[in-house]
Amino acid sequence: MTIQDKVIAITGASSGIGEATARHLAARGAAVVLGARRTDRLDRLVEEIAAAGGRAAAVRVDVTAPGDLRALVDRALERFGRLDVLVGNAGISRVGPVADLDVEGWSAMVDVNVKGVLHGIAAALPVFRRQGTGHLVTVVSTSGLKIVPAQAVYAGTKNAVRTLLESLRQESTDGVLRTTSISPGYVRTELIDSAVDDPGLRERMQQDMAELGLDPDAVARAIAFAIDQPEDVEIGDLTIRPTRQG
Ligand code: NDP
Known about the structure:
Elements: E1 7-11, H1 16-27, E2 31-36, H2 39-51, E3 55-60, H3 66-80, E4 85-88, H4 103-131, E5 134-139, H5 152-171, E6 177-184, H6 199-212, H7 216-227, E7 237-240
Parallel strand pairs: 1-2, 1-4, 2-3, 4-5, 5-6, 6-7
The protein binds NADPH dihydro-nicotinamide-adenine-dinucleotide phosphate (NDP).
NADPH dihydro-nicotinamide-adenine-dinucleotide phosphate is lined by residues 11-18, 36-38, 61-64, 89-93, 112, 139, 141, 184, 186-187, 189-191.
Organism: Kineococcus rhizosphaerae
GO molecular function, one term: oxidoreductase activity, acting on the CH-OH group of donors, NAD or NADP as acceptor
Family: Belongs to the short-chain dehydrogenases/reductases (SDR) family.
């Protein structure tokens, strides 16, 4: 089965990496099912993909609500008859030292970045098992690989997901499930727009990102590479950074 035969659900498809991934996979013939909270953006993307001859559907998904992930999976089954891949991409970031005690931000990151992925697994795994095949792709981060100050909780959430997927992989050696963790470095998206409250710091981070960050399509291509492997090949971990990133 190549990309053009697959049905692929993507969380966080309303902007950045998720949006670029939806566009890229749809252009290669996959049927894509898009989830996020900003449905106006999802609807526009579905129209754009359909106008280009592609196949897409969308559903409002807040990944903190387990039922919304079930609705995403159900949409794939109703509309396209199966689900081959779930891309758990939705994520948020809050940057700052632990001593800032951004308790709300910590909780939000755990809810979206960790529990959001768990809710996706809970919704998709029974379908993958029933079908006898399925692929779980998560977007983690190089922040979890190179530990730096001011990203403790964000990096921790990404490493929690990395751990989760590796454990799931070892539990699933019957050939039904493939798991992939994609670790991007800096990517030019909206992620940092809500990462800090200080407008000056935010602007500096946005400038750095604009200068150094990858185009989200680079990550979309990496995700497509993992998805496009034959059934007996599993890309476990894939890191993708701007060449000039330290
Ligand atoms: P964006 O902010 O552009 O996209 C984040 C996406 O997540 C949006 O579509 C947003 O949709 C969605 N999202 C956020 N909260 C929720 C929620 N509660 N329920 C459903 N969807 C949600 O950032 P990126 O594209 O950069 O982020 C995508 C992933 O890539 C994240 O997991 C991020 O951590 C990771 N990443 C990004 C890097 C970067 O440099 N940009 C580097 C490494 C990893 P909506 O608001 O409409 O719900």
